[in-house]
# Entry
Amino acid sequence: MKFYRLLFLLVIFSSSASAKTMLVLGDSLSAAYGMQQQQGWVALLQERLSEHFFEVDVVNASISGETLSGGLTRLPALLDRHQPDYIVLELGANDGLRGGNVKVIEKNLRKLMATATESGARVLLLGIRLPPNYGPRYTENFFKLYEQAAKEYKTYRVPFLLENVALDPKMMQSDGLHPNVIAQPVLLDTVWPIMEIMLRKP
# Structure
């Protein structure tokens, strides 16, 4: 009996030791704004990883209201603490919604990407589109920043996190900016195909 108990503990320890870490650094879109944490797409991601037999522990460091500069300030300590194998970056929406200077946004996004990639982790960048009332020139210049950054740093990219929910009132909260509970699985489905490619790469 003692032998089997020891064998069981060794298997558990080995599994835990081999598990990789994924850090999600985002804003309210990833922080389950307006709902319970376990209902958000990041929590659902942890469940899907387990269902697909990926030994990956998800650390959600997303904060509602977070900006690119805020993420830049917090990322070094998060890297030291968690030493992630994968990093998911979902930031910039608040910078854009506040009408920030595109050049400043670009500078901070590139710094964030540089810090993430230099850690040695595989990086997935989640793109954002702004509402059309910000004007086509500003919104398009903003949107292109994500594609340019992903190409420059050779990272994975999901073009637009809210692609399948932003124009559906049934999927959005009353403020028209944040996806609701029923939209969370759709957000995960939007992210998953690219994330799975990243996870399966040797």
Remarks:
- Confidence is low (pLDDT under 50) at residues 3-16.
- Residues 51 and 85 are 19 Å apart (CA to CA).
